[in-house]
Protein backbone atom coordinates (compact mmCIF):
# COMPACT_ATOMS: atom_id res chain seq x y z
CA UNK A 1 0.00 0.00 0.00
CA UNK A 2 2.76 2.46 0.94
CA UNK A 3 4.97 3.02 -2.09
CA UNK A 4 7.70 5.33 -0.87
CA UNK A 5 8.77 7.79 1.76
CA UNK A 6 7.10 10.87 0.33
CA UNK A 7 8.69 13.40 2.65
CA UNK A 8 10.42 13.79 5.99
CA UNK A 9 9.85 17.05 7.84
CA UNK A 10 12.17 18.70 10.31
CA UNK A 11 11.22 21.71 12.43
CA UNK A 12 13.79 24.50 12.61
CA UNK A 13 13.80 27.94 14.16
CA UNK A 14 15.83 29.66 11.43
CA UNK A 15 14.95 28.36 7.97
CA UNK A 16 17.69 30.19 6.09
CA UNK A 17 20.41 28.96 8.41
CA UNK A 18 19.09 25.41 8.21
CA UNK A 19 18.82 25.55 4.42
CA UNK A 20 22.46 26.65 4.20
CA UNK A 21 23.55 23.66 6.29
CA UNK A 22 21.38 21.16 4.43
CA UNK A 23 22.66 22.43 1.08
CA UNK A 24 26.14 21.49 2.25
CA UNK A 25 25.08 18.14 3.73
CA UNK A 26 23.07 17.11 0.66
CA UNK A 27 25.45 18.63 -1.88
CA UNK A 28 22.65 20.39 -3.76
CA UNK A 29 20.80 23.71 -3.76
CA UNK A 30 17.40 23.87 -2.14
CA UNK A 31 14.77 22.67 -4.62
CA UNK A 32 11.78 24.74 -3.64
CA UNK A 33 10.34 27.06 -1.00
CA UNK A 34 6.72 27.27 0.11
CA UNK A 35 4.72 29.67 2.24
CA UNK A 36 2.06 27.78 4.18
CA UNK A 37 0.02 30.47 5.96
CA UNK A 38 -2.89 28.17 6.81
CA UNK A 39 -0.43 25.87 8.55
CA UNK A 40 1.46 28.71 10.22
CA UNK A 41 4.76 27.83 8.60
CA UNK A 42 7.18 28.39 5.81
CA UNK A 43 9.11 25.53 4.31
CA UNK A 44 12.07 24.73 2.10
CA UNK A 45 12.57 21.34 0.53
CA UNK A 46 15.18 19.22 -1.17
CA UNK A 47 14.53 16.45 -3.66
CA UNK A 48 16.55 13.46 -2.50
CA UNK A 49 15.99 10.47 -4.76
CA UNK A 50 12.26 9.70 -4.74
CA UNK A 51 11.65 11.62 -1.49
CA UNK A 52 11.59 15.16 -0.17
CA UNK A 53 13.44 16.42 2.86
CA UNK A 54 11.42 19.39 4.13
CA UNK A 55 12.57 22.03 6.60
CA UNK A 56 9.71 23.81 8.36
CA UNK A 57 9.89 27.07 10.29
CA UNK A 58 6.85 28.15 12.30
CA UNK A 59 5.53 31.60 11.43
CA UNK A 60 2.90 32.08 14.14
CA UNK A 61 2.80 30.80 17.72
CA UNK A 62 -0.61 29.12 17.59
CA UNK A 63 0.07 26.77 14.69
CA UNK A 64 0.84 23.07 15.00
CA UNK A 65 4.51 23.53 13.94
CA UNK A 66 5.08 26.22 16.59
CA UNK A 67 3.48 24.11 19.29
CA UNK A 68 5.55 21.12 18.25
CA UNK A 69 8.72 23.22 18.37
CA UNK A 70 7.84 24.56 21.81
CA UNK A 71 7.25 21.05 23.12
CA UNK A 72 10.01 19.08 21.41
CA UNK A 73 12.60 21.57 20.21
CA UNK A 74 14.17 21.49 16.77
CA UNK A 75 14.45 18.22 14.89
CA UNK A 76 12.23 15.51 13.43
CA UNK A 77 8.61 16.54 12.93
CA UNK A 78 6.93 13.87 10.80
CA UNK A 79 7.37 11.07 8.26
CA UNK A 80 4.94 11.13 5.35
CA UNK A 81 4.24 7.90 3.47
CA UNK A 82 2.88 7.95 -0.05
CA UNK A 83 -0.12 5.72 -0.55
CA UNK A 84 -2.49 5.25 -3.46
CA UNK A 85 -5.58 6.30 -1.49
CA UNK A 86 -5.95 8.00 1.89
CA UNK A 87 -9.34 6.39 2.38
CA UNK A 88 -8.10 2.89 1.62
CA UNK A 89 -5.07 3.36 3.85
CA UNK A 90 -7.22 4.49 6.77
CA UNK A 91 -9.80 1.78 6.16
CA UNK A 92 -7.09 -0.85 6.39
CA UNK A 93 -5.71 0.67 9.58
CA UNK A 94 -8.91 1.64 11.37
CA UNK A 95 -10.44 5.10 11.48
CA UNK A 96 -9.50 5.49 15.15
CA UNK A 97 -5.88 5.89 13.99
CA UNK A 98 -6.69 9.18 12.23
CA UNK A 99 -5.67 12.43 13.87
CA UNK A 100 -8.41 14.63 12.46
CA UNK A 101 -9.56 14.83 8.85
CA UNK A 102 -7.22 14.90 5.87
CA UNK A 103 -5.80 18.31 4.97
CA UNK A 104 -3.85 20.06 2.22
CA UNK A 105 -0.09 19.98 2.57
CA UNK A 106 2.38 21.92 0.47
CA UNK A 107 1.89 21.96 -3.29
CA UNK A 108 -0.60 19.34 -4.46
CA UNK A 109 -0.18 17.08 -1.44
CA UNK A 110 -3.15 15.85 0.56
CA UNK A 111 -2.17 14.35 3.88
CA UNK A 112 -3.75 12.36 6.66
CA UNK A 113 -2.04 12.52 10.04
CA UNK A 114 -2.05 9.46 12.30
CA UNK A 115 -2.37 9.70 16.07
CA UNK A 116 1.13 9.98 17.42
CA UNK A 117 0.26 8.33 20.73
CA UNK A 118 -0.47 5.16 18.74
CA UNK A 119 2.66 5.09 16.59
CA UNK A 120 5.42 4.64 19.16
CA UNK A 121 6.40 8.28 19.41
CA UNK A 122 6.85 9.03 15.71
CA UNK A 123 4.39 11.28 13.91
CA UNK A 124 3.37 9.35 10.80
CA UNK A 125 1.22 10.57 7.97
CA UNK A 126 -0.20 9.23 4.71
CA UNK A 127 0.14 11.37 1.59
CA UNK A 128 -1.24 11.40 -1.93
CA UNK A 129 -0.41 13.82 -4.72
CA UNK A 130 -3.65 15.15 -6.14
CA UNK A 131 -2.32 16.15 -9.54
CA UNK A 132 1.03 15.74 -11.34
CA UNK A 133 3.84 17.43 -9.45
CA UNK A 134 4.93 20.82 -10.67
CA UNK A 135 8.71 21.11 -10.57
CA UNK B 1 26.34 13.86 -3.62
CA UNK B 2 23.45 12.41 -1.59
CA UNK B 3 21.47 10.03 -3.79
CA UNK B 4 18.58 8.89 -1.62
CA UNK B 5 17.27 8.53 1.87
CA UNK B 6 18.94 5.26 2.75
CA UNK B 7 17.12 4.65 6.01
CA UNK B 8 15.13 6.34 8.75
CA UNK B 9 15.47 4.89 12.24
CA UNK B 10 12.92 5.04 15.02
CA UNK B 11 13.62 3.98 18.59
CA UNK B 12 10.98 1.81 20.24
CA UNK B 13 10.77 0.02 23.57
CA UNK B 14 8.91 -3.07 22.32
CA UNK B 15 10.09 -4.12 18.87
CA UNK B 16 7.46 -6.80 18.30
CA UNK B 17 4.60 -4.45 19.15
CA UNK B 18 6.01 -1.74 16.94
CA UNK B 19 6.56 -4.17 14.05
CA UNK B 20 2.93 -5.27 14.28
CA UNK B 21 1.76 -1.64 14.02
CA UNK B 22 4.14 -0.75 11.18
CA UNK B 23 3.09 -3.83 9.23
CA UNK B 24 -0.45 -2.46 9.31
CA UNK B 25 0.59 1.12 8.50
CA UNK B 26 2.85 0.10 5.62
CA UNK B 27 0.64 -2.72 4.37
CA UNK B 28 3.51 -5.19 4.17
CA UNK B 29 5.28 -7.76 6.34
CA UNK B 30 8.55 -6.79 7.98
CA UNK B 31 11.38 -7.30 5.49
CA UNK B 32 14.23 -8.25 7.77
CA UNK B 33 15.40 -8.43 11.38
CA UNK B 34 18.91 -7.82 12.65
CA UNK B 35 20.68 -8.38 15.94
CA UNK B 36 23.24 -5.62 16.53
CA UNK B 37 25.05 -6.62 19.72
CA UNK B 38 27.95 -4.21 19.21
CA UNK B 39 25.41 -1.39 18.98
CA UNK B 40 23.34 -2.65 21.89
CA UNK B 41 20.20 -3.01 19.82
CA UNK B 42 17.99 -5.25 17.78
CA UNK B 43 16.27 -3.95 14.70
CA UNK B 44 13.51 -4.74 12.25
CA UNK B 45 13.20 -3.05 8.90
CA UNK B 46 10.79 -2.48 6.07
CA UNK B 47 11.71 -1.81 2.45
CA UNK B 48 9.68 1.24 1.39
CA UNK B 49 10.49 2.24 -2.18
CA UNK B 50 14.22 2.93 -2.34
CA UNK B 51 14.54 3.44 1.43
CA UNK B 52 14.39 1.44 4.65
CA UNK B 53 12.29 2.25 7.67
CA UNK B 54 14.13 0.74 10.62
CA UNK B 55 12.72 0.14 14.11
CA UNK B 56 15.40 -0.13 16.80
CA UNK B 57 14.97 -1.53 20.28
CA UNK B 58 17.83 -1.08 22.77
CA UNK B 59 19.13 -4.30 24.30
CA UNK B 60 21.52 -2.95 26.92
CA UNK B 61 21.38 0.24 28.97
CA UNK B 62 24.84 1.58 28.11
CA UNK B 63 24.45 1.65 24.34
CA UNK B 64 23.73 4.74 22.24
CA UNK B 65 20.16 3.63 21.43
CA UNK B 66 19.30 3.11 25.12
CA UNK B 67 20.76 6.47 26.07
CA UNK B 68 18.85 8.16 23.27
CA UNK B 69 15.62 6.48 24.40
CA UNK B 70 16.20 7.56 27.99
CA UNK B 71 16.81 11.14 26.92
CA UNK B 72 14.23 11.58 24.16
CA UNK B 73 11.68 8.81 24.54
CA UNK B 74 10.37 6.75 21.67
CA UNK B 75 10.32 8.18 18.16
CA UNK B 76 12.72 9.46 15.52
CA UNK B 77 16.33 8.45 16.04
CA UNK B 78 18.24 9.30 12.84
CA UNK B 79 18.07 9.96 9.11
CA UNK B 80 20.71 8.18 7.04
CA UNK B 81 21.64 9.63 3.64
CA UNK B 82 23.26 7.46 0.99
CA UNK B 83 26.34 8.99 -0.53
CA UNK B 84 28.93 7.64 -2.92
CA UNK B 85 31.84 8.09 -0.50
CA UNK B 86 31.89 8.82 3.23
CA UNK B 87 35.30 10.48 2.88
CA UNK B 88 34.21 12.75 0.06
CA UNK B 89 30.99 13.68 1.87
CA UNK B 90 32.89 14.61 5.02
CA UNK B 91 35.59 16.45 3.10
CA UNK B 92 32.93 18.62 1.47
CA UNK B 93 31.29 19.32 4.79
CA UNK B 94 34.32 19.73 7.04
CA UNK B 95 35.73 17.08 9.36
CA UNK B 96 34.51 19.00 12.41
CA UNK B 97 30.98 17.89 11.47
CA UNK B 98 31.83 14.23 12.15
CA UNK B 99 30.62 12.64 15.36
CA UNK B 100 33.40 10.09 15.80
CA UNK B 101 34.81 7.78 13.15
CA UNK B 102 32.69 5.83 10.69
CA UNK B 103 31.26 2.54 11.95
CA UNK B 104 29.47 -0.58 10.71
CA UNK B 105 25.71 -0.39 10.64
CA UNK B 106 23.35 -3.25 9.99
CA UNK B 107 24.10 -5.61 7.11
CA UNK B 108 26.76 -4.18 4.77
CA UNK B 109 26.18 -0.55 5.71
CA UNK B 110 29.01 1.73 6.77
CA UNK B 111 27.82 4.91 8.39
CA UNK B 112 29.24 8.24 9.48
CA UNK B 113 27.28 10.14 12.12
CA UNK B 114 27.19 13.92 12.03
CA UNK B 115 27.22 16.05 15.15
CA UNK B 116 23.62 16.58 16.13
CA UNK B 117 24.28 19.91 17.80
CA UNK B 118 25.25 21.22 14.35
CA UNK B 119 22.29 19.89 12.38
CA UNK B 120 19.34 21.74 13.91
CA UNK B 121 18.27 18.99 16.26
CA UNK B 122 18.08 16.14 13.76
CA UNK B 123 20.59 13.32 13.91
CA UNK B 124 21.90 12.95 10.36
CA UNK B 125 24.23 10.31 9.04
CA UNK B 126 25.92 9.43 5.77
CA UNK B 127 25.78 5.82 4.58
CA UNK B 128 27.42 3.67 1.94
CA UNK B 129 26.75 0.03 1.16
CA UNK B 130 30.04 -1.80 1.12
CA UNK B 131 28.98 -4.71 -1.07
CA UNK B 132 25.80 -5.62 -2.95
CA UNK B 133 22.82 -5.88 -0.64
CA UNK B 134 21.73 -9.35 0.39
CA UNK B 135 17.99 -9.67 0.31
Task: Write a compact overview of the structure shown.
The structure is a homodimer of 135-residue chains. Chain A is an alpha+beta fold and 135 residues long.
List the helices and strands and how they pair.
Two copies of one chain form a homodimer.
Chain A: E1 2-11, H1 15-26, E2 32-36, E3 41-48, E4 51-58, H2 64-72, E5 75-83, H3 86-93, E6 103-104, E7 109-113, E8 124-129
Parallel strand pairs in A: 1-4, 5-8
Antiparallel strand pairs in A: 1-5, 2-3, 3-4, 6-7, 7-8
Architecture overview:
The structure is a homodimer of 135-residue chains. Chain A is of the alpha+beta class. The first copy, chain A, has a single domain (2-129), classed as 2,3-Dihydroxybiphenyl 1,2-Dioxygenase, domain 1, CATH 3.10.180. The first copy, chain A, is built from three helices and eight strands; from the N terminus they run βαβββαβαβββ. Chain A binds chain B through residues 1-5, 8, 10-13, 17-18, 21, 24-28, 48-51, 53, 55, 73-76, 79, 81-83, 89, 92-93, 114, 118-124, and chain B through 1-5, 8, 10-13, 17-18, 21, 24-28, 48-51, 53, 55, 73-76, 79, 81-83, 89, 92-93, 114, 118-124.
Which descriptors apply to this entry?
39% strand, globular, 2,3-Dihydroxybiphenyl 1,2-Dioxygenase, domain 1, homodimer, 3 helices, 21% helix, eight-stranded mixed sheet, alpha+beta, 135 residues
> Which term fits the overall shape of chain A?
globular
* Chain pair sharing the greatest interface: A-B, 43 and 43 residues
Question: For this structure, what is the CATH class of chain A?
Answer: Alpha Beta
State the oligomer.
homodimer
What proportion of the residues of chain A is helical, as a percent range?
Answer: 10-25%
Order of helices and strands of chain A: EHEEEHEHEEE
> CATH superfamily of chain A, please?
2,3-Dihydroxybiphenyl 1,2-Dioxygenase, domain 1
